[in-house]
């Protein structure tokens, strides 16, 4: 009985992130004297939606194997939020072109990342690091002093709720389901997992390894691009540091969610669980009135603690 | 290619050539920079970056990556501008505790076989949180000793040049020429065989991380001496800059291939990149981008060299 339970948990490592989320929520609600439980859930769903969208891309990249990680996500968010605001230019009719331009910018950066990895034969960390520096500069040049508000319709749409659930959360849930389907049921998705387990064997098996890698980096860039536009819509305009927190957050969420750091095994439900967990930790610490410094300190210790207890496998980079 | 210059020597010379090209460009634009004070001004800020780069290099040598070094350097600067000035004994103890904590993290990474990227990611929150607790708003005052020390004007060449030369020499002796360095690079190249030869990987990882802590502390203190006051985010960009410098210096990121001299040159190159733009009258908006372009250009050159080597 206990062994069966243990086996099931080992097969679904994302369970922990949801247990952690539930525990954190309970503590937060009890701190605030039983009030505000629903508001907390609603806020958590909205903010986690952004985290989930970008982290899904990061998860796919990390799943393609040791050393694969996308460090350009914050720069892409900074760039795409500026691009979206420039294209929309406060006109309701330009919302769709604006979103498309933001996604296209992300796809282009993702393609360039892959190009650097392939042409220069450098580790993905270095490739995405170098490109992120260049992309950030472009974002600074485009976005400096930009004071364009998102079109009202767009701003309303990203903050609206459908049957009490934030629309953004529904979008992110749909994206998660789509990614899960792609991972499990499509040739591309199976190729990504196969590459992560062994790139050489995947190639010998006749899979198109290079195409799958290219698509993965483009997917990560595209999702970051979309998220950048949504964040700009949500926070009333673009700013350069909008993406800053997502570098650490996406990696933490992917790993805490149970995705294998050494690649080959993705965990889509864990992305949602870990994103909610990370948000609720901050909410809990805020509710208990600790100083910002102590809050960061505890967040860091929790990340290290969760990794130390849960994931004990080293990526043989 | 003439015989007297081997392919690997050409690769090894690349960091020096990059730095020379950048310096030539600056001197061409602004001949007055070619003086004692000009060089001092240009290279001043490279001292802390050199130390941070060497800290990162130690970690990269054993196939790990440190995403927390920038936050750690900031923390050291914050401790230095508060505790170290008001209560020197307590300040020194705090700095030593920081180095010990670095060593402990190395032990944790080895013991639980954790990915260093994720652990140091969490660690960066810890350092940053501590920095904000120690110094909630930018300010504080550097100990007078530090500010005088980094403003020393030695004969013939400004201080950064001496620091770079001495540090590069020491690094070369320790990493590329000593038996200790062989174990270090072996631990990056093939940890299993190093362990089989009777070395404890735990001891190696702990000492490497602790050494990185010492170098990070030197980076923080020299940075504080230059800026004279602290800030919890003062060195946050050092994390990426240090990785980029190590790579510019010729490290291949896997298998324990690191070059201390190259890393020092790489750190100076990236420090100069910003000034170069100013002299070229290019908007400072492109400063970070220029570092990216330099990195990509050098990596492309290196890829070309490797390809020629394979075909010749």
TrEMBL record, chain A:
NAD in keyword set: no
Transmembrane segments: 12-31, 43-65, 95-116, 122-142, 162-183, 214-234, 246-264, 270-287, 294-312
One Gene Ontology CC term in the entry: plasma membrane
Gene Ontology MF term list: transmembrane transporter activity
The organism's place on the tree of life at top rank: Bacteria
Compartments where located: Cell membrane
Key words, A-Z: Cell membrane, Membrane, Transmembrane, Transmembrane helix
Name this protein carries in UniProt: ABC transporter permease
The keyword Secreted appears for this protein: no
CDD domains assigned: TM_PBP1_transp_AraH_like
Pfam families: BPD_transp_2
Membrane topology designation: Multi-pass membrane protein
TrEMBL record, chain B:
One annotated GO molecular function: transmembrane transporter activity
UniProt keyword annotation of Kinase present: no
InterPro entries in UniProt: ABC_transp_permease (IPR001851)
Subcellular location: Cell membrane
Keywords: Cell inner membrane, Cell membrane, Membrane, Transmembrane, Transmembrane helix, Transport
Record membrane topology: Multi-pass membrane protein
Residues spanning the membrane: 39-60, 67-84, 90-109, 116-136, 156-175, 202-226, 238-256, 263-282, 288-305
A Pfam family reported for this protein in Swiss-Prot or TrEMBL: BPD_transp_2
CC annotations in GO: plasma membrane
Entry protein name: ABC transporter permease
């Amino acid at each position: 009985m206990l062994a069966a339970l243990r086996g099931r948990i080992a097969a679904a490592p994302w369970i922990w992130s949801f247990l952690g989320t539930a525990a954190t929520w309970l503590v937060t609600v009890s701190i605030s004297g039983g009030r505000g439980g629903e508001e907390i859930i609603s806020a958590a769903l909205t903010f986690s939606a952004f985290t989930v969208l970008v982290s899904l891309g990061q998860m796919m990249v990390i799943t393609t194997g040791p050393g694969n990680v996308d460090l350009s996500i914050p720069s892409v968010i900074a760039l795409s939020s500026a691009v979206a605001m420039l294209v929309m230019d406060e006109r309701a009719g330009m919302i769709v072109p604006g979103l498309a331009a933001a996604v296209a910018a992300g796809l282009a950066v993702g393609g360039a990342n892959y190009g650097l990895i392939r042409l220069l034969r450098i580790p993905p960390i270095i490739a995405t690091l170098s490109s992120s520096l260049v992309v950030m500069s472009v974002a600074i040049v485009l976005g400096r002093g930009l004071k364009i508000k998102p079109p009202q319709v767009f701003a309303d749409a990203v903050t609206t709720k459908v049957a009490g659930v934030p629309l953004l959360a529904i979008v992110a849930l749909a994206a998660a389901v789509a990614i899960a389907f792609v991972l499990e049921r499509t040739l591309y998705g199976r190729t990504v997992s196969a590459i992560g387990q062994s790139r050489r064997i995947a190639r010998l098996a006749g899979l198109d390894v290079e195409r799958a890698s290219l698509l993965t980096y483009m997917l990560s860039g595209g999702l970051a691009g979309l998220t950048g536009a949504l964040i700009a819509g949500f926070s009333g305009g673009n700013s350069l540091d909008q993406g800053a927190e997502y570098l650490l957050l996406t990696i933490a969420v992917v790993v805490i969610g149970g995705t294998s750091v050494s690649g080959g095994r993705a965990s889509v439900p864990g992305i949602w669980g870990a994103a909610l967990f990370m948000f609720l930790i901050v909410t809990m610490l805020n509710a208990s009135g600790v100083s910002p410094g102590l809050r960061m300190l505890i967040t860091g210790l929790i990340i290290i603690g969760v990794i130390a207890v849960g994931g004990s496998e080293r990526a043989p980079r | 290619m003439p015989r007297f210059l081997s392919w690997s020597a050409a690769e090894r010379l690349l960091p020096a050539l990059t730095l020379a090209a950048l310096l030539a460009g600056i001197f061409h634009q602004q001949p007055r920079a070619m003086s004692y004070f000009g060089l001092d001004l240009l290279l001043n800020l490279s001292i802390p970056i050199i130390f941070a780069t060497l800290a990162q290099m130690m970690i990269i040598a054993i196939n790990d990556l440190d995403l927390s070094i920038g936050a750690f350097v900031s923390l050291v600067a914050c401790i230095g501008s508060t505790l170290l000035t008001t209560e020197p004994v307590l300040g020194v103890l705090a700095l030593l505790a920081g180095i010990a904590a670095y060593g402990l993290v190395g032990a944790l990474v080895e013991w639980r076989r954790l990915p260093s990227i994720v652990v140091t990611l969490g660690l960066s929150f810890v350092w940053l949180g501590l920095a904000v607790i120690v110094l909630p708003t930018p300010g504080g005052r550097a100990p007078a000793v530090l500010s005088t020390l980094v403003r020393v004007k030695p004969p013939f060449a400004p201080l950064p040049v001496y620091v770079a030369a001495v540090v590069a020499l020491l690094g070369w002796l320790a990493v590329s020429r000593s038996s200790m360095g062989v174990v270090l690079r072996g631990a990056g190249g093939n940890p299993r065989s190093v362990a089989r030869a009777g070395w404890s990987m735990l001891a190696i990882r702990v000492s490497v991380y602790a050494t990185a802590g010492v170098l990070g502390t030197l980076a923080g203190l020299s940075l504080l001496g230059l800026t004279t006051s602290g800030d919890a985010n003062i060195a946050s960009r050092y994390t990426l800059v240090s990785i980029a410098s190590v790579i510019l210096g010729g490290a291949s990121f896997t298998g324990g291939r690191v070059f201390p001299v190259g890393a020092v040159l790489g750190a100076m190159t990236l420090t100069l990149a910003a000034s170069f733009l100013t002299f070229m009258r290019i908007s400072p908006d492109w400063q970070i981008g220029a570092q990216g372009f330099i990195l990509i250009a050098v990596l492309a050159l290196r890829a070309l060299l490797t390809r020629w080597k394979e075909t010749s």
